[in-house]
Design goal:
Number of strands of chain A: 11
Distance between the termini of chain A: 27 Å
Oligomer: heterodimer
Structural class of chain B: mainly beta
CATH architecture of chain A: 3-Layer(aba) Sandwich
Largest interface: A-B, 37 and 37 residues
Helix content of chain A: 25-40%
Order of helices and strands of chain B: HEEEEEEEEH
CATH topology of chain A: Peroxisomal Thiolase, Chain A, domain 1
Number of domains of chain A: 1
Strand order of the largest sheet of chain A: 3-2-4-7-1-8-11-10-9
């Protein structure tokens, strides 16, 4: 009987890089950002495009990407469920490599989220379920959709706007240590609460940035993992799920159910680890509440305890669980599908290459939504 | 808006499995589906029960009460260009079961204090044009907080 535990530590990330710069890049198209990421990750691993025989991407199709890059892989994965797609690609790559479908997988992300160069439009058709049941009420992108469950979390658990603001403040403290971060000036709780209201309870500083950029990863088998210039970063555990696409259809507005019931337990089970082993976390922060929901669902605290935990600055420099140490989507960069950047920072921390490098990190967790808590993905990475 | 036309609001277009819902709204009836196996109502319409552990195809259309509660919401200050901010994007927990996104109507200057989560709501049929009636919601009986604010 196949068991995912047998795939723990069987594949490793041996190449990882972002685009040369991130932020505002009106001179690069979406596909250019994919390619620049790919070339940088290949250089990081000492490989060329001709070594690649497996490709996974989201935002553009594998067909668009392979045409642009001029390669013909023997395994492709176009799973595209939003920002967490790249975490899912890593999990799929582990299985594909174990199955012998391919040996060297390239996973790419590129997005002109801010400049919209060569990017498509946002929104669905009038006959889609979102066109029928959400668009007529004036939802206008993630700030007015992803945020809809928060008021219920506040009512049920007493979560406050100050606690939401603490997430932004802690994350900014990490960004101050990252020269590539777009927003590096220190901020206070009061700054967050007095910033422009976007969609109550979210103020401007509770919302992620909108930027351009990309990143790519190279994944290979355990047998080859030590043949590359950089120390391998092992895939120890993974989990994936999806539960809805329209935020009104989220199963439980106070709980990230797919993370609590499926992706967290499965990632921990595969890795043979529990919460106490996690020394560093990248919990996708599209908005201030996203990491609160993640922390609770993944069992680091009990239901409703996330807000107070962040208010105690446990995620900040010097805190119990250093989180979003690149400055996160809130202050570093957020192209639209930020998950790739969350993985990149875990890899940097595990390699000892991060701008805000932690001491002695051996196990890191990456966790992301796709869409508005719609799809869910979890990775546990390690360097031992 | 003088001298400037506001962008049109996005309007729904029915599909086969949702036609009865949209047709019902034009008659000012809230038509919803009910699962005869697990005896629960659900939303949005589809020809089977969406609840985990059931997924029965034995479902029927019923006319719902038009009552529900304010499950959660945001007050959009920067939103869709066709909407005048601030406006409330809410999710109603329907009395019969299921959740529906909507706007809360009849409330000037919405604030969190005027919109307690779990407050009772009732449906308001907004005839947009000959083709579309939208299900908006307002403070229901027994909702003193919202009622006092309107």
């Amino acid at each position: 009987m196949p068991d995912s535990r047998n795939l723990s530590h069987k594949a490793a990330i041996v190449g990882a890089a972002e685009t040369d710069t991130v932020g505002v890049l009106p001179d690069r198209s979406v596909l250019q950002l994919h390619a620049e990421s790919a070339f940088n990750a290949l250089a990081d691993a000492g490989l060329t495009l001709d070594d690649i025989d497996g490709v996974a991407t989201a935002g553009v199709s594998p067909a668009q990407l392979t045409e642009y890059l001029g390669i013909m892989p023997k395994w492709i994965d176009g799973t595209a469920v939003g920002g967490g797609s790249f975490l899912i690609h890593v999990g799929h790559a582990v299985a594909a490599i174990a199955a012998g479908y391919c040996d060297t997988v390239l996973i790419t992300h590129g997005e002109s989220g801010r400049s919209r160069v060569g990017a498509g439009g946002f929104g669905g058709a009038r006959q889609s379920m979102s066109g029928q049941f959400e668009a007529p009420y004036g939802v206008a992108g993630p700030p007015s959709m992803f945020s809809v469950p928060i008021a219920r979390h506040m009512k049920v658990y007493g979560t406050t706007e100050e606690q939401l603001a603490a997430v932004s403040v802690a994350t900014r403290q990490w960004a101050q240590q990252n020269p590539r971060a777009m927003m590096r000036d220190p901020i206070t709780i009061e700054d967050v609460l007095s910033s422009r209201m976007i969609a109550w309870p979210l103020h401007l500083l509770n919302c992620c940035l909108v930027t351009d950029g990309g990143g790519a990863l190279i994944v290979v088998s355990e047998e080859r993992a030590n043949d590359f210039p950089k120390k391998p970063v092992w895939v120890l555990g993974r989990g994936e799920s999806s539960q809805h696409t329209n935020i009104s259809q989220m199963w439980d507005f106070t709980e990230w159910t797919a993370a609590a019931k499926i992706t967290g337990p499965e990632a921990f089970r595969m890795a043979g680890l529990d919460q106490s082993a996690i020394q560093h976390a990248m919990f996708y922060d599209a908005f201030s509440h996203t990491p609160i929901y993640a922390l609770e669902a993944l069992g680091f605290v009990g239901p409703g305890e996330g807000g107070p935990w962040f208010a105690e600055m446990n995620s900040a420099p010097g805190g119990k669980l250093p989180m979003n140490t690149n400055g996160g989507g809130l202050s570093y960069t957020h192209t639209g599908m930020y998950g790739m950047f969350a993985i990149q920072e875990s890899v940097r921390q595990l390699r000892g290459e991060a701008p805000a490098q932690l001491d002695n990190v051996e196990v890191s967790m990456v966790h992301a939504p796709g869409g508005m808590f719609s799809a869910t993905s979890t990775l546990i990475l390690g360097n031992q | 808006m003088v001298g400037q036309q506001r962008m049109q609001k996005p309007l729904p277009q029915a599909t086969p499995e949702t036609q009865e819902f949209w047709d019902g709204l034009k008659r000012h009836e809230l038509r919803m589906q009910h699962c005869n196996t697990c005896d629960r109502g659900y939303f949005y319409p589809r020809p089977f029960c969406p609840y985990p552990g059931c997924h029965s195809r034995d479902v029927e259309w019923r006319t719902a009460s038009g009552k529900g509660t304010l499950h959660s919401y945001v007050i959009a200050h920067r939103g869709h260009p066709a909407f005048e901010p601030p406006y409330v994007i809410a999710v109603v927990a329907l009395e019969e079961g299921g959740k529906m996104m909507t706007n809360i109507t009849g409330l000037d200057d919405p604030t969190p204090e005027k919109l307690p989560v779990d407050a009772p709501l009732e449906i308001v049929y907004q005839d947009v044009d000959d083709e579309v009636t939208l299900p908006l919601w307002k403070a229901g009986v027994g909702s003193p907080q919202i009622a006092a604010a309107t």
